[in-house]
Amino acid sequence: MNFQKIVFLILLLMISMSMSFLIGSVFGENIFDLNGYGFQFLIFSILGSFIFFCLKYLKSYDILIVVIFISSIFTYLMRKTSLNEQIGGVFQIFLYSFMLFITYSVIFKFTWFRFKYVRNIMFSILEAFGYVIVHLILHILIKKPIEGSYVLIYFLNGLKIMITLGVSFSIVEYVNARLEQLFFKDPERIPSGSEADMNGDLAD
């Protein structure tokens, strides 16, 4: 992995986590509270950054390694909770990752060059529906009744998180593009004297 890719990953994590903290604070949520809704801002900022990075620069199967690693970290953070909560938390992370991967893959495949930053807004809207689907699956698994109010709440909660993530990625891509121009592009090669003479002869 070259230095430019490392810089891109650092930008992803730094900006997405900072935006999550900022937006979470605006809504009165603590992203470090394991039992609160704000914690999902943190989960998605980390998961989303790594999955975005893997799809852009690595192989798809690298995402599985990343998800297992992140799941292990969150399992450790939840070590003081019950075993059922730990298993449920890890399973939820896998579902989140699966939906992120599917949505990203579709967006990357069909709109990578044509829509540019709008692509990230499209991702936000699609993934908000994915967020709802994950929670409906969890409702079914734990046999909890599904009400229309739940669906609306999940969609709005998911939309807040995903728009935060989508805007973060747009900022990252903009900053990364500027950094590429400043530091990572090869300088234009200055033609040698003989090449300059040849170009002059051709012009004549």
Describe this structure in words.
With about 200 residues, this protein is an all-alpha fold. It has one domain. It is about 80% helix and about 0% strand. It has seven helices and no strands. The longest helix is centred in the last third of the chain and has 37 residues. It is globular and about 55 Å long. It starts with a helix and ends with a helix. The relative contact order is 0.11.
Short description:
The chain is mostly helical.
> What coarse outline follows from CA principal-axis ratios?
globular
Largest sheet: none
The end-to-end distance, rounded to whole angstroms, is 47 Å
Share of residues in helices: over 70%
Series of secondary-structure elements, N-terminal to C-terminal: HHHHHHH
Query: If you average the pLDDT, what whole number results?
Result: 78
Which percent range describes the beta-strand content? under 5%
Tally of separate helices: 7
SS-based class: mainly alpha
What's the Cα radius of gyration? 22 Å
Total count of strands: 0
- Count of structural domains: 1
**Uncertain residue ranges:** 187-204
